[in-house]
Amino acid sequence: STIASRMRRVVITGIGVVSPLGIGQKAFWTALVEGVVGIGRIRAFDPGGFPCQVAGEVPEYRIAEHVPKSYRKATKVMARDIELAVIAADDALRDSGLKTRGYSETPDIDPRRFGCNIGAGLISAELNELGAAMNTARDGNRLDLRAWGSTGMNNLTPLWLLKYLPNMLACHVTIIHELKGPSNTITCADASSHLAIGEAFRTIQRGAADLAICGGAESRLNPMGLLRQCLLGRMNTTSNDSPQTAVRPFSPDGAGTVIGEGGGLFVLEEMEHAKRRGARIYAEVAGFGASQDTAGLVAPAPNGYPTATAITRALADANAGPDEVDLIVPHGLGLASHDRAELQGLERAFDTALLTIPLAPIKAQVGNLAAGCGVDAAAAVLALHHGLVPPAAYAGPFIDELKLNVSKRPRPAGMDLVVSSVHSLGGQNAALVFRKAAS
């Protein structure tokens, strides 16, 4: 028998989301379909000194309500990125109908067969934590590195570093829920979630685990995170007074994106394992593809080849042709140069079918969630599951006057196959193909 025929099949049995559209998968889907835009003036800090002052911000929450009582003390060493991952994981695992140590006295999982792959970003340190330490290491208006090494660092809390290591998202999730299978962290900016889901998919396919929690989370919603993005020239600085229309995916005058924050996590499960326990199956993970763009550090290859390569590989992995795809959730940053390259890639992958396949570019509603782009994948799977194409907050005109299949209204549609694709600063591209679960 071929390797392909021996590969185990993998399905999605739980979806957890935390996003600017709300806490929880149900709140997210409801708001997405209603066309709610979760982008507004930044509330987390005073953005007055920044060229871009709007973002997609997660509504207020209390992290203590999303962890077991016995674990509340540990929330002191959680950066916001970690909190978002913990909330999304709690949402996804409860949604799956499985019982874990995180919320049940009688867990029903084999922890050694339960893996974890969570994409993470470059977690930004809180300025107030750094401030005191910096002050003791000043030489006039300059930072004295010798003083920083000898006295400044001593003013940081001993557990300071534990808040900011990217693998701490997976660390807290696995400890809370007692998951002891293969665990991995992927840090590749906007592609992190999709690469993590792809890795979990392969881990279960080849038999190293039966279940996995996977996806990603990130918050760039702090002065350091926003500053980095502004310096890179990726932010829309012209829509501070009109945040609701700040992100315009595939617009010829797309002036940039805005930061968002959030997390999207799936529970993946080996198909027979899911069927044996009578689990609700949202979709099958049918294919995964990845590629690397080598055009440069800050802009994608204008010809879109890397985007096309990732999608074409994912479709081949799913044994499907481009004309079988019923929905595309594209990256759609709202930065015209990037969007133009992505469109070139989509045209290479889908050819003439691109103009007939519905598109759902969700960043106009949530901003760019970076390592939290698992939310994009969740949108694709929920659309497939509910048989509904989400509306687009921006519906044209598009680059090169292309007549993309985008609508401001939600559209009921029978779907069998959907694609979600992303590309990152640094050139990593990834695509996932999801197939309707056989009833």
Description:
The chain is an alpha+beta fold and 439 residues long. It has a single domain (10-124, 164-434), classed as Thiolase/Chalcone synthase (Peroxisomal Thiolase, Chain A, domain 1, 3-Layer(aba) Sandwich). Helix content is 29%, strand content 19%. Strands 1, 2, 5, 8, 9, 10, 11, 12, 15 and 16 form a ten-stranded mixed β-sheet that branches. A two-stranded antiparallel sheet has the order 3-4. A two-stranded antiparallel ribbon has the order 6-7. The mean pLDDT is 96.
Q: Which descriptors would you attach to this protein?
A:
single chain; 439 residues; alpha+beta; Peroxisomal Thiolase, Chain A, domain 1; 10-stranded mixed sheet; two-stranded antiparallel sheet; 13 helices; 19% strand; globular
Write the layout of secondary structure elements.
Layout: H1 3-6, E1 10-19, E2 22-23, H2 25-33, E3 39-41, E4 54-56, H3 80-95, E5 114-119, H4 127-135, E6 138-139, E7 142-143, H5 145-150, H6 168-177, E8 183-186, H7 192-205, E9 211-219, H8 223-231, E10 261-270, H9 271-276, E11 283-292, H10 305-317, E12 327-329, H11 336-350, H12 363-366, H13 374-386, E13 388-389, E14 411-412, E15 417-423, E16 428-435
Parallel strand pairs: 5-8, 5-9, 12-15
Antiparallel strand pairs: 1-2, 1-10, 1-11, 3-4, 6-7, 9-10, 11-16, 13-14, 15-16
Put the structure in a nutshell.
The chain has 439 residues and is α+β, with helices and mostly antiparallel strands. It contains 13 helices and 16 strands.
The poorly predicted ranges are none
Would you state the CATH class? Alpha Beta
Rough outline: globular
By DSSP (H or I, 4+ residues per run), the number of helices equals 13
Task: Report the order of strands and helices.
Answer: HEEHEEHEHEEHHEHEHEHEHEHHHEEEE
At CATH level 3, the topology is: Peroxisomal Thiolase, Chain A, domain 1
Q: How does the major sheet shape up?
A: 10 strands, mixed
How would you state the average pLDDT, rounded? 96
Helix proportion range = 25-40%
